[in-house]
Amino acid sequence: MAETEGSITFEIVYRGIFQKTLANRISRSIVLAARTRGLTGTSFSRYGDSPERNGVPAKQFCVVAKDDLELEASLAKYEPKVVDVTVVLDDTLVKGVESWAWYGRQPIWKPTREGGIVLVTSERPLAEVLAQTDAAVRPYTLATVPGAASFAGLWVFKDDHTDYRVLGALAKLAPDWVRLDDVKALIKEQTKDDTAVASAQLGYDEAVTRAVAVGEGTTKHEVLQFEKPGWTKMRPGVIVDARKPGERNPYYKKYGARTLRPVVNFDTCIKCTMCWLDCPDECFDVTPEGHYEVVYSACIGCGICAEVCPVKDCIVMVDELKFEDNDNKWQVWKKDKGTYNAWFEDKSGVSAAPPAKASARSAGGGEA
Length: 368
Fold this sequence. Notes:
By secondary structure, this protein is of the alpha/beta class. Helix content is 28%, strand content 18%. The chain has helices at 20-35, 68-74, 126-131, 162-173, 180-191, 194-206, 274-278, 304-308, 330-335, 337-348, 355-362; strands spanning 7-15, 40-45, 57-65, 83-88, 112-121, 140-145, 208-212, 260-264, 284-286, 292-294, 315-319.
């Protein structure tokens, strides 16, 4: 299952900084396991100066080839534009990514060749993962391997066996290039730990797959593609277009960095301004009534607003895969508070009722 008969290319898409070491371990292990049976390969990052920021999508690559000549042919490019296997280390990334030096949100499968594989670490049913993935323009295989988004790959690596489960799953999906016995032998040699070896077997056994046909997936994600000007079209000098006060960059949308998003209970908001003051990305707008609403296209999901809010459950951080749009919500609340509050409760799992009302109900003091 290779792009060419003599090589196969993998990309590992990860959350910048948080999963950097994890992605590197997976990529290197693919190559090392292949070398035990006489194949050759190499592992590399998109860039060498590590500019990726917390949570921003980034990539690691590796190529495995039959011989050195095939390997050199595969590496005659800065970054593979077509890959055979895409490994996704956080299932919220299936909503699309805008990585460093990319212009516009890209479908997670964009570089995956026709008939290729997208493997996602997720605790969700495969159908739920597909439902948040951009509609396919060519057929591919979607696969999941059990696991939550790992933060094991921070600067100091904390082993949670994500890499072993992913390697086991890859042995199931691409057995001509990644063999389970080779993976197990490599893990045993590196760790001397039978539980780590068992995790590779678990990934192999529990990885599930689904053929994705053209058109399957969602069409609800924002279409965000821009043309990069060539050097002949660039204006002389260094020019930065000014923005009007309150106007945000229409090209760079930060939500690709988000795994959680804040939802606001406007009924309990006391208009204290703390979320607006402390948000590092200035993604709160003041409303005519003095509330503060989240501009989701600018929000990176850092959670600071929920931390500084003095009202319990007024701002709640919610799993990003529960949402299908980035629409602002204050107008919905203004038009129909009952509908909005039902939405808030469904997404957050907490009551939208102000604390005093909730206490009265629990004490049996319901409305007359």
